[in-house]
Structure formats: structure tokens, C-alpha cells
Specification:
single chain, alpha+beta, Beta-Lactamase, 6-stranded antiparallel sheet, 6-stranded mixed sheet, 18 helices, diguanylate cyclase activity, Rev_trsase/Diguanyl_cyclase, GGDEF_dom
Length: 663
């Protein structure tokens, strides 16, 4: 190799003079930076495709030269491995070891030699190809020519075509690099455009605190980017939207639609329709931190798919999912605040009353208003009647009705102690319901009414519309009924305390102060009434003879006889000691005498040990000049005193108007 040729291939590291097809180029000029591009030994394992493409281009450019007609060409790697070229050279190199190639790689100089074997009688030339800057051998060009041409001339032509190939290689390298730069530039521009779109999109999304507005913004933004696309949003949440493109996502095991698969798998899904539709369906999950809330479903023509920025659409769907989640949380927090306020107001108003009837009526009214139901019915188990009693209902025809505790939907909830949501009574009917049938309702929500940890009743709410009540309705009803149950428990406790205060613990009769209150109340509304005062004869002698425990037993027996002899509306009380009193509202003196006589006879026959009683009776009516509780008691007491002095076991009416004596 000549010195000029050597300089053309090599340059010292850091040199400002580099070789290319146009001659020396000053490397410090900015416009030549691309021509200073070079490869390093680290790139050698990856440049085979580039060398092969450069070889084909070099063959096309050199096709008309005499050398191409008389020579066979091949390219070897920097390690002497076959890359591309004529088949006879391949066969030759595979069949024999030629020293020309190894000598070229070791000396890094062009070498010529005589062919052997299948190439015997030919000239074999090998020329190393050097990198621009560091002069590393990155390939070896091999030529085979006949002996018709001088070996030196063959080597010179090979070196010349090697330089041409090297120029083709670096030109190809520059093209590839420039193409990569253009791709990077275009990608950067797309990224800037994408970021600009996302910035404006996210900015608009983050100012939305309404769930519907978030969904509308997501759809409108996609349509603005791709006007020809068909866009739909399938939502899995229990959310109704007035937007025509927002639809419920219904899942069935037989469905294989794109949006269903997207929702189930949580990944972007593309489905290309078969001809002749030429339609492509794209499903993009719209999710947040807590899960996937819906699917953005886009349909475009197949020809428009390459222009679709699927990554941008995925980012927009994710942003929409996050905004939807935030708006939903904001909506739920406001709803919770509203519910807490309602519960607080309800509790305050419930606690103002300790009367059960008022509590039931107020609870019925508030439940109708809060849950916007058509009908509300509150059932309480009545132990005396042995069934569920309607204590409050805006369906007046059911008021005060008593149902068996295992009847209908109310009985089902009462026994199961579990709430019930009924979406369509006509389609699913776990039990009969007079409330549902008489009000022509379709939806129902019911929950057990718990008082002090025990189920004491049922609350039923109905509506004519199907699928009216939601999980939020169920949750709110449970919260409200728990507070209603507390208020009822307080009222029950108050009633029990009042009952205990108004009752005599030994006889279970009313106390005297309660009797006074009730007589006074009756005197303000009735036309007449009678009072019977009953005294056990010789009760001190019974205590002295049989003991006080037996005396208490006698007192209980007499009290039981009195209670079972009188009407339900009559008021029996322990007046003091062994004296009992019975007030008979609306009865005159003659009727009172009959009641007293029945009591006297039963006591003498049914007590053990046998005792007798004496009775004093007084009455009042609206014609009396003076009507008072004190005068009524005084007159009855005087009559009793007279009966005692008259021999006991007898009945005496006030002022001795009548007397019944027994022998």
C-alpha cells in the first residue's frame, strides 16, 4: 500500500483532518459535524446489516466499471468472518485456509496473493477498511481476478473500490443517523404536542368537581382530537348520566365485546373487523387508584389507525379515571356530610320526645322525606297481641293492623334479622306483601328495627318505580333506623321507668298517685265515674296468725281477683296497706255496686286462707257542685268506714244511700 493510500485510510486520534470522498475537511466547522460521525469497535457486532446494505448500493454504483466485470467481490468482518459477496469466494474460504486474509488482519495493510484450490490461477487481494477517526479495521474487502491482469494493478483497483465502498458505507451511516435524528425530532415534537394537549386536558379535568362534567369532558376531548371517530364511554359505576354517549357497562359471561374484555383485563384492547367493514375497535380502560371505573370505546376506520396516538388516549383515559375518582369522592364526602347533618337533626328531634306515638309518627315522616319514598310503614312486635303491629304508616288503611310475625316481607325481615332490597316486586317475590299490593309499588327497601340489641320491629319503604332504591339508600336507611331504634329504646326505658313508678311492686296494681292523676284526667273529659275502695277484713289478724309472707300472698291474691274482675279500661290501685281502690270511668253507682259485689264474692271463695273484704263506693257526675279527687276519696272512705263498723264483708255506698249486708 502506498503512503498516500495509507493516509487516506488512517488518521491519528484527535486529528483535525479527516478523510471523505471530497477530500480533507476541517473538523472544527459546525456544518461538517455529521461527516465526523464514526463507529467504534463496540459497534462492530451490530453493523453487519449496514455493511450488507452498503455493499448492495456499492454494487449498483460500480456496475458499469471494467473491474466489476472482471473481478469477484466479497466482504469479511473485522475478525475475518464471512459477511456478503460472491459464492465462489465463500466456497474457497470455507474449503481452504488462505494466508492472505490473516496477513491483512494482522498487518492492517492491503495484501495480494495467488489463489489455491478452486481459485488456482487467480489473484486474491484483501484490503482492510478503516474507521474515520481511530483507524480501526471494521471490515475486509476481498477481490478475485484472473492472471490476465497484473497483480499490482489488481491490488490498486481493489484499493480504489474499497475506498468507494467505504464512502458508500459512511454515507449510509450518515443517512441512518440522520433518519434516526429525524425520528427523534419528530418524536420530540409529538411529545411536546402530546404534553401540551395533556396539560390543557388535565387542567380542564382538575377544575371539574361534578362527575357528569368529568365524563362529558373526556368524551368531548377525544372527539376534538379525532372528529371522525365514534366514541362511547361505558361506566361500571352505579351512576346515571344524561349524556347520550355515556352508557352502563353490563357484564355477561357470554359477551366478548372489546369494552368487556378491556374492563375485565384492565389493558388496552384492539380488535380489527374482517373485510369489508374495515373498522377497528379500541378499548381503553378508565381507571384510578381504586380500580377500573369504565372503558373508553373508540371506533375508527382501519386507514386512520396509524394516525391514532394510542399512548395519548391511554394517558387521557387515566387522567379521566383519576378525575372521576376525585369527583366521586368529593360527591360522596358531600353526601356523607349531608347525611350526617340529617342524622344529627333527626336525632335531636327524636330525643325531644319520649312518647312512642310521636316518635313513630315523626320517624315515618322523616324517612319518607329523606329517602323520597312513596310509602313508609313501621311495624313493632306486640307481645300482648302476638304479632307485628302497624304503629305508623302513611297508607291509612293499614294503620293499627296486626300481622302474624311470620307473614309477608315484614315477617321475613323480622325473622332473618337482615335487610332486604327488592328491585321489582312483580318479577321477584320472596313473600307476599299487602303494603306492596295495596300501594301498587315495585321497589322496596326494608330493615330490621333494633332496640337495645334486640330486633323489635321492621321498617318498610316502597316506591312505584322499579330499581328505585340503591345501596346508598340501604346504607342511609340502616344509619337512620339505628338512631330511631335508640330513640325508641329511650322511650321504652322511660315508659318502663314510669310504669315502675306508677305501679306497686308487690301487687302490680297502680300506685295511688297514678290513680289520683287518672281520676283527675277522667273528670275533665267524662260525664260520670265511680270509685270502689276495698279493704281486707281482719288483715292484721292474718299477719299475726300466718305471718307477713302469707299476708303478702293474700294481698296478691285479692289484687289478682280485682284485676280479673274489672274492665280493661278500669284503673285498679293499691291505696295503702291492705286497702285497694278501683276507679270505674263512665259507670254510675248501681253498676259500681255490681262490680264490687263480684269482687266481694270471689275473694271470699277463692282466697287461701279464706278472707273477706269490705267495700266503700262513691260516685261523681257532671251535675255535682264540687267535683274533685279529694272529695271522691273522702266519701268512699267514709262509706268503707261505715261498712267496717257494720260488721265487715259488706258493701256500703256513700251517705248510706244503699247498703248490701251479708249474714
Amino acid at each position: 500500500m502506498s503512503e498516500d493510500q495509507r493516509k487516506a485510510y488512517e488518521s491519528s486520534p484527535g486529528s483535525a483532518v479527516m478523510f471523505n470522498d471530497a477530500g480533507p475537511i476541517p473538523g472544527n466547522e459546525p456544518r461538517f459535524w455529521l461527516q465526523s460521525l464514526d463507529i467504534t469497535p463496540h459497534d462492530f457486532p451490530y453493523i453487519q446489516p449496514l455493511i450488507s446494505d452498503s455493499y448492495l448500493e456499492w454494487l449498483r454504483e460500480s456496475a458499469g466499471t471494467q473491474a466489476m466485470k472482471k473481478f469477484s467481490w466479497a466482504l469479511l468482518s473485522h475478525e475475518g468472518a464471512w459477511l456478503t459477496g460472491a459464492s465462489e469466494i465463500t466456497q474457497y474460504l470455507n474449503a481452504s485456509e488462505d494466508e492472505t486474509i490473516s496477513l491483512t488482519l494482522n498487518s492492517k495493510e492491503a495484501v495480494q496473493g495467488m489463489g489455491k484450490g478452486s481459485l488456482e490461477g487467480s489473484v486474491l487481494c484483501a484490503v482492510p477498511l478503516f474507521t474515520r477517526i481511530h483507524g480501526d479495521v471494521f471490515a475486509v474487502m476481498v477481490s478475485v481476478s484472473s492472471l490476465e491482469m497484473e497483480p499490482e494493478q489488481s491490488l490498486m483497483l481493489t484499493e480504489t473500490h474499497a475506498l468507494l465502498f467505504r464512502s458508500c458505507f459512511y454515507r449510509k451511516l450518515e443517512y441512518v443517523f440522520a433518519d434516526d435524528l429525524e425520528k427523534v425530532h419528530n418524536q420530540a415534537e409529538r411529545e411536546v404536542h402530546r404534553r401540551s394537549i395533556m396539560f390543557q386536558y388535565v387542567k380542564r379535568m382538575h377544575v371539574q368537581i361534578n362527575v357528569d362534567n368529568v365524563l362529558v369532558e373526556a368524551i368531548d376531548s377525544v372527539l376534538a382530537l379525532y372528529p371522525k371517530a365514534k366514541v362511547e364511554l361505558f361506566m361500571s359505576q352505579d351512576h346515571e348520566s344524561g349524556h347520550p354517549l355515556v352508557r352502563p357497562l353490563l357484564l355477561h359471561h357470554w359477551q366478548r365485546e372489546v369494552y368487556v374484555r378491556t374492563f375485565m383485563e384492565g389493558t388496552l384492547t384492539i380488535d380489527e373487523h374482517k373485510e369489508p367493514d374495515s373498522i377497528v375497535e379500541i378499548g381503553i380502560p378508565m381507571g384510578g387508584k381504586q380500580g377500573v371505573y369504565g372503558v373508553l370505546h373508540v371506533e375508527v376506520d382501519k386507514s386512520e389507525l396509524p394516525d391514532m396516538d394510542l399512548e395519548l388516549l391511554s394517558m387521557m383515559a387515566d387522567a379521566a379515571g383519576t378525575a372521576f375518582e376525585n369527583a366521586k369522592l368529593y360527591e360522596q364526602s358531600n353526601l356523607m356530610i349531608h347525611e350526617l347533618r340529617m342524622i344529627n337533626e333527626l336525632t335531636q328531634r327524636l330525643n325531644k320526645s319520649l312518647h312512642l306515638a310521636e316518635i313513630f309518627q315523626f320517624a315515618n315522616h322523616e324517612l319518607l322525606k329523606i329517602l323520597e319514598a312513596d310509602y313508609c310503614c313501621i311495624l313493632i312486635y306486640n307481645e300482648e297481641l302476638g304479632g307485628l303491629e302497624v304503629v305508623s304508616c302513611n297508607a291509612e288503611w293499614l294503620a293499627k293492623e296486626v300481622f302474624e310475625k311470620d307473614y309477608g316481607l315484614g315477617g321475613l325481615v323480622y325473622h332473618s334479622k337482615e335487610p332486604l332490597i327488592l328491585s321489582d316486586y312483580n318479577e321477584e317475590r320472596p313473600a307476599e306483601s299487602r303494603l306492596m299490593e295495596s300501594t301498587h309499588s315495585s321497589s322496596m327497601i326494608a330493615t330490621p328495627l333494633t332496640v337495645n340489641g334486640e330486633v323489635r320491629g321492621v321498617v318498610l319503604l316502597t316506591h312505584a318505580k322499579r330499581h328505585y332504591f340503591s345501596y346508598d339508600s340501604y346504607r342511609l336507611l340502616q344509619a337512620l333506623t339505628s338512631h330511631i331504634g335508640l330513640a325508641i329504646g329511650n322511650a321504652f326505658l322511660h315508659a318502663e321507668v314510669r310504669r315502675m313508678a306508677n305501679r306497686d311492686m308487690l301487687t302490680e296494681l297502680y300506685a295511688r298517685h297514678y290513680l289520683d292523676e287518672m281520676i283527675h284526667e277522667c273528670q275533665t273529659r267524662d260525664f260520670c265515674g265511680s270509685l270502689i275502695v276495698v279493704d281486707i277484713d281482719a288483715f292484721k289478724q292474718v299477719n299475726d296468725t300466718f305471718g307477713h309472707q302469707r299476708g303478702d300472698k293474700i294481698l296478691k291474691q285479692v289484687s289478682s281477683i280485682v284485676k280479673t274482675t274489672i274492665r280493661h279500661s278500669d284503673i285498679p290501685a293499691r291505696w295503702g296497706g291492705e286497702e285497694l281502690a278501683v276507679y270505674l270511668p263512665g259507670l254510675g253507682i248501681q253498676q259500681a255496686m255490681q262490680v264490687a259485689e263480684r269482687i266481694r264474692i270471689r275473694v271470699s271463695e277463692e282466697t287461701d286462707p279464706r278472707v273477706t273484704v269490705s267495700c266503700g263506693i262513691s260516685e261523681w257526675n257532671w251535675t255535682n257542685d264540687k267535683i274533685s279527687v279529694e272529695s271522691l276519696f273522702y266519701r268512699a272512705d267514709m262509706a268503707l268506714y261505715e261498712a267496717k263498723n257494720g260488721g265487715r264483708n259488706r258493701i256500703v255506698v256513700e251517705r248510706a244511700e244503699a247498703e248490701i249486708g251479708l249474714d
